[in-house]
Specification:
Elements lengths: L5 H22 L2 H24 L10 H7 L12 H21 L10 H16 L9 H14 L6 H6 L3 H17 L6 H9 L7 H11 L9 H8 L11 H18 L3 H13 L2 H30 L7 H25 L1
Helix pairs in contact: 4-13, 4-14, 5-6, 8-9, 9-10, 11-12, 11-13
C-alpha cells in the first residue's frame, strides 16, 4: 500500500502542468511562436537594463573613517591636482589643524596650544630664520619646533628628553654650521642632504626633525620630511612604511619642488596641502570619538563603583557577609587540597 501525501500530489500536478505548457509552447509554430519569442527577449533585456542601472551597494561597507584615510580622488592626486584645488586644500588647513588640537589630550598648565605652536612654526620662526642674515637658532627654538612636531604629527614620548639633553652651545654651533653649508651649496641636489648630515649629529635630531629645522631657514626650497608629505607625494596617498633614508628624502624633495614650480607654491604650502589630504576626516572622527568617550566616562565610573559596592561593601561586621567570606575561603582551600592530591 502506497502512502501518497498531499505534498506529493501537489508536486505531481505541478510537474504535469509544466510539462503540458512546455509541450504547447514547443508545438506552437509560425508567426505566433515568433511573436512570443520576441516578446520574451524584449522582457529579458529590459530586466537586465534595470538591474544594471541600480546603484551598487557594497556587501560589507567599511566605516567612513577607514575609507577617508586611504581614499584618494582624482582631484587630490599630487600629480594631477590643479591650482584651484590646491588653494582649496590650503583653505581647509585651519579646520583640520583645529580638529587635531581638539582631539589631543588637554594641555598642561602653561603649555602652548597647537594653534599657538602653529603660529610660531609657520609665521614667527620663518620670519625670524627664513632670511639671508638670520640670527643663530638656539636650543630653546629647537625645543619649541620639536614640541610642534610632536603635537602636530605622531607623538614620540622620548624625543623631547633627547633633544633637551643636548648642550646649548653645541646645538647653536651645529645648526649654524649646517645652515652655512646649505646656503654655500645652494642650487645643488645634494645641498639638503649635506645639511641633514650635520644636523643629525645632535641627540634626538633625526632626518625628519633636521628637515624641519632646514625648512624654517629655507621655506621656498627645503621640504619638511613629514609622513603626510611623503605619503601624498611619493606613495600616491598610501600609508606605506617610511625608513627616513636619504634616498626617500631626495625623492620627496624632487616631487615637492616639481609640484611647487608647477603651481607656484612654496614648500610650506605643499606641506599643508599634504597634511589636509591625509588627515581630513580622520581627525574629525577622532574628535567625535573622544567626545563620545568623555560622555560615557561617567557611566563607566558609576558601573565600577557599583561593582565595588557589591563585592563586600562597607558593612564588614555583617554576620551574613562574614559567613559568605568564610565559606568562600573554605571552598578555595578544599579545591586547593584536591588539586594537590591530583598532582601528587
Amino acid at each position: 500500500m502506497q502512502l501518497i501525501t498531499r505534498r506529493t500530489m501537489r508536486w505531481a500536478r505541478g510537474g504535469a502542468r509544466c510539462g503540458m505548457e512546455r509541450k504547447r509552447e514547443t508545438d506552437m509554430g509560425g508567426a505566433e511562436g515568433r511573436i512570443m519569442h520576441a516578446s520574451y527577449v524584449r522582457t529579458r533585456r529590459a530586466n537586465q537594463i534595470n538591474v544594471s542601472a541600480r546603484p551598487s551597494v557594497p556587501l560589507s561597507p567599511r566605516p567612513f573613517l577607514e575609507q577617508s584615510s586611504t581614499m584618494m580622488t582624482r582631484g587630490t592626486s599630487a600629480d594631477e591636482i590643479s591650482q584651484h584645488e590646491f588653494r582649496s586644500l590650503l583653505a581647509e588647513y585651519p579646520t583640520v589643524a583645529e580638529a587635531k588640537g581638539a582631539g589631543a589630550a588637554k594641555n598642561k598648565p602653561g603649555q602652548k596650544t597647537l594653534q599657538q605652536l602653529d603660529a610660531y612654526r609657520y609665521d614667527d620662526a620663518i620670519r625670524t630664520f627664513g632670511v639671508e642674515h638670520s640670527p643663530e637658532m638656539t636650543l630653546a627654538h629647537v625645543q619649541t619646533l620639536v614640541e610642534w612636531k610632536l603635537r602636530h604629527g605622531k607623538f614620540r614620548p622620548t624625543l623631547m628628553s633627547l633633544v633637551t639633553s643636548n648642550d646649548a652651545q653645541i646645538t647653536r654651533a651645529t645648526i649654524s654650521s649646517a645652515v652655512t653649508t646649505y646656503r654655500a651649496s645652494s642650487g645643488s641636489h645634494d645641498a639638503p642632504q649635506k645639511a641633514l648630515d650635520i644636523l643629525t649629529k645632535l641627540r634626538g635630531i633625526g632626518p625628519a626633525t633636521a628637515s624641519l629645522l632646514l625648512n624654517v631657514h629655507d621655506p621656498q626650497r627645503a621640504i619638511f620630511f613629514s609622513d603626510e608629505a611623503y605619503w601624498w607625494l611619493c606613495c600616491g596617498g598610501d600609508r606605506d612604511a617610511i625608513k627616513y633614508s636619504a634616498k626617500e628624502y631626495r625623492a620627496l624633495c624632487e616631487k615637492a619642488v616639481a609640484l611647487g614650480e608647477r603651481l607656484g607654491a612654496d614648500m610650506v604650502d605643499v606641506e599643508k596641502a599634504a597634511y589636509v589630504v591625509m588627515r581630513r576626516g580622520v581627525e574629525e572622527g577622532k574628535t567625535t570619538a573622544r567626545g563620545k568617550e568623555d560622555g560615557n566616562k561617567g557611566r563607566l565610573d558609576k558601573k565600577k563603583r557599583t561593582r565595588g559596592e557589591d563585592d563586600m561593601g562597607d558593612d564588614k561586621d555583617s554576620p551574613k557577609r562574614n559567613m559568605m567570606a568564610k565559606e568562600h575561603v573554605a571552598s578555595g582551600a578544599t579545591k586547593l587540597r584536591r588539586s594537590k592530591r591530583r598532582k601528587a
